[in-house]
Each structure stands twice: as C-alpha cells, then as structure tokens.
Amino acid sequence: MTVKSALCLLTVLVILSIAAGIDDKCGACNAVAEEIELGLSSEKPRNHLDMRHRLDSKGQREGKLIDYRVSELRVVELLDGLCEKMQDYTLREIDSTKQEWVKVHDWDNITDKQEARAYSKVISTYCGRLLEETEDELADLIKKGSVEVGGVSKVLCEELSNHCSPKSGSHQPGSNSHGDVDGEL
To answer: Which among 53, 68, 56, 40 has a CA at the least distance from the CA of 155?
Structure first.
C-alpha cells in the first residue's frame, strides 16, 4: 500500500468515525429539518397532476387528477437532493462547550476549510441515514399535509426519529439547533 492510498484510507475512516459518532443528533436533525422547511417555503403553487392520458372506447379521457400537494412527485421534489444540500452546512463552535450546525454561504470566509468540509460530509452522511430510517413515514405525512413550514423539526426530529426530546421542545443541551450565517463563515 502506498503512502497516498494509506492517507486516503485514513481520511475515509476518520470521516466515517465522525459520522457514526455525531454528538448532537438533535442539532443535526434540526439542520436537516431546516433545509426541508426551506424547500417547503420556496414551493411554487402547482396545478393538479393530470393522469388522464388514455382514451376509453368513446374517446373520453380516462385516469384521474391528483392534487400536487398530496402527490408522490411533491415528496420526491422535496427530498431529492436534500442530503447533497446538507454539504453546505458545517459545525460552528459557539464556545468551548457548545456547537451548532450552520449553513455556509461563503466557503472563502472559513478559516479551517478542511475541517469544515469534513463536517459537511458528516452531516450529509447523517442526513442519508436519517432519511433511510424515516423516509416512508415522512413521505406519508407530507402527502397527508401533516408536515408544514414551522413544524418539520417537531415531526422529523421528535416524532419520527426521536433524536430530540419533546420535553425540551427543540434540542438537547449543549447545542443550538441551526443557524444561518452570511458573513461569519
């Protein structure tokens, strides 16, 4: 094994160990929920999906109209690419005991880019595992209209994944759920 391949293997193992041991699952879950809320809030009004593509023996269109808000297409559009978008997040230290997941708008303002990118991979991996565990239930709730802007964190992080305690209302001690930082990072 060459030195280069050994370093690559070591880097992969470090990232995987960090991903497996995410300390603040509640904060990470809230960051994922924030990204879903961004998707929900930026949705444009859509018409019903017209699935009447067949003609019956009388020449009338057969099939049904599906309300976009309860369609599988809406779920796919909300969740598809979500974990790739999480690569825009990193962990920011508030003080020596607290950290928060933040969306980075300008990677040039990050002092330790390598560490920040490693954390972005960590939350992206976490997002994949979270969706793997909760996707079916989350999709059903989105189609039923139970997931709305302002309530994603409660549904995803408290009810479906149990990564946050319902008693605290948002997250576990020692973390801030998420932040949006323009100039700082």
So the answer is: 40
